[in-house]
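B., you asked whether I could sanity-check this one before it goes into the benchmark set. Here's the sequence:
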Amino acid sequence: MIAIMAAKCTITYNQALKTISGIREVVYANGSHAHVEYTKEQGELIEKLKIGL
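And here's what the prediction gave me:
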C-alpha cells in the first residue's frame, strides 16, 4: 500500500512511510475522535490521494 501511495504521489517509499507514520488521531473517553493538525507534507499527501480522514 505504501508503494502504491508513493508512486501515485511521485515520492519515494521512505518519504511516504515517514509522512504517514506521523499521522495521529486522538480518541476521547466518550468515544469521539479528532485528528491532530496535519503537517504540510501530510496534507499534500492526503489531498493527492483524495482521501478523507
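One thing to flag: Residues 40-49 form the longest helix (10 residues). Otherwise nothing jumped out at me.
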